[in-house]
Amino acid sequence: MTDIDGLIAGVVAREGGYVDHPADRGGPTRFGITEAVARARGYTGAIRQLPRSVAEDIYRTRYWKGPGIDRVARRAPVLAAELFDGGVNMGPRVPIGFLQRALNALNRGAADYPEVARDGRIGDATLTALDAYLVRRGRDGEAVLVKAIEALRGERYITLAERRPANEAFLYGWLAHRVGVRA
């Protein structure tokens, strides 16, 4: 089982304290939590003063349990860590969509399991496909699936920098600290 507390600690360490980078469309953050996300959770104070405990609760509820990554962790803990980190950085639907895309591409023309909708949600169909994939591919299957998702994340980061030059300020860090990093 994945240690969500360890994953959260890793994200907080990478994200740091208060940051207000002029090129970041998300605006000011504390521990990687944007003001909009903190407000949606009910936090009314200054983002600069966001308590770490509130940030940890947001990570646990919005990025782990809410999208169902905890359900993936029971089957594939390394994959769950990848989805969690991607969700923190891109929003949970994006890396879950990567998972669904990879599962569909790895199902050998639906011979191993049916295609899943690429809806960015972890539901029964996605979990059933994941279970079938892991049984079919065995011990190395999880690692291959994580590599596929890392490749898709890297491609997305480069595309974001190409489409919006201001994102070039973040590209090196995204690639260095978000792709292939295990908390």
TrEMBL record:
SUPFAM superfamilies: Lysozyme-like (SSF53955)
One Pfam family in the UniProt entry: PG_binding_3
Domain TtsA-like Glycoside hydrolase family: 10-91
Span of domain Peptidoglycan binding: 95-179
Highest taxon listed in the record's lineage: Bacteria
Name of protein: Predicted Peptidoglycan domain-containing protein
Annotated organism of origin: Sphingomonas carotinifaciens
